[in-house]
Amino acid sequence: MSGASVHASASGPKSTREATKLLGLTGSVGMGKSTVASMFRELGIAVMDADATVHELYAPNGAAVAVVREMFGDQVVDASGGVDRRALGEIVIGDAEKMAALERAVHPLVDRAREDFVASREGDVAIVFDIPLLYEKGYETTMDAVCVVSTGCEKTQRARVLGRDGMTPEKFEGILARQMPDAEKRARADYVIDTSLSLEETRARVEEVLRAVVERR
């Protein structure tokens, strides 16, 4: 399938179009999910990035700022009026109860943003939702299909992640502890994209997955 053969917007009267397919895109840290998301964008498919959405909610005048301030006080709001993510992290990371409370407060705002995003893309053949903790938070039930990005190799994953600025083995292990094992994600997925292959091969697989999702019944 060439990039020109799948378009982000369907043509023809609305009554004759198939419903927009919602594809969840996930994968453990360091597996190449961001690269794959970019490939979907290059094919004209809208991608909603869950992490970027939270950043927007935490930005000055963001919908989550007042909520987070009410929960944890002025100490978690920086001089610009946005959420100080480092200060917030120092409070909730390692405290399961506070982390759960934060997620209960913020997730409805993320869900609302997702609904607005879907509404804004009416007529698209597919929308991709880039959600790192998709399975862990149960979002697979809201998708038509799920695609997992993986290298299939822990050694490659570790090398990629530890090569990032500011990353340490301890931080890496902490991230892994919050994520479902890669093998389990792959077993549960409707589609798997292997990023241990060349970029050309990965791009071809992205196109193949997109075709399958669009044609999915």
From TrEMBL:
User: Domain of life of the organism in this record?
Assistant: Eukaryota
GO biological process assignments: coenzyme A biosynthetic process
User: Would the keyword Hydrolase turn up in this protein's UniProt record?
Assistant: yes
For this UniProt entry, the molecular function terms from Gene Ontology, in alphabetical order, are: ATP binding; dephospho-CoA kinase activity; hydrolase activity
Q: Which Pfam families match?
A: CoaE (PF01121)
For the keyword Methyltransferase, the answer is no
What the entry lists under CDD domains is as follows:
DPCK
* InterPro entries attached to this UniProt entry: Depp_CoAkinase, P-loop_NTPase
Instruction: Identify the keywords attached in UniProt to this record, alphabetized.
Output: ATP-binding, Hydrolase, Nucleotide-binding
| PANTHER family from the UniProt entry | BIFUNCTIONAL COENZYME A SYNTHASE-RELATED, DEPHOSPHO-COA KINASE-RELATED
Q: Which HAMAP family match?
A: Dephospho_CoA_kinase
Q: What is the recorded name of this protein? A: P-loop containing nucleoside triphosphate hydrolase
Organism, as annotated: Ostreococcus tauri (Marine green alga)
